[in-house]
Amino acid sequence: MAFIDTLVMGKPAWMWAIFMTIVVILLAVDLGLFHRKAREIGVRESLLLSAFYITIGLAFGAWVWLNIGPTSGKEYLTGFLVEKTLSMDNIFVMSLIFTYFGIPRIYQHRVLFYGILGVILLRGIVIALGAWLVASFHWVLYIFALLLIFTGIKMLLPGDDEPDIEENFALRIMRRFLRITPKLHGQRFFIRQPDDKTGKILTWVTPLFVAMILIEIVDVIFALDSIPAIFAITTDTFVVYTSNIFAILGLRALYFALAAVIDRFSYLKPALAMILVFIGSKIFVADLAGWEKFPSSVSLSVTIALIAGGILYSLWRTQRDPEPPSPNDKVQNAKPGDV
Question: Which domain holds residue 219?
Answer without folding.
Answer: 22-141+161-261+325-330
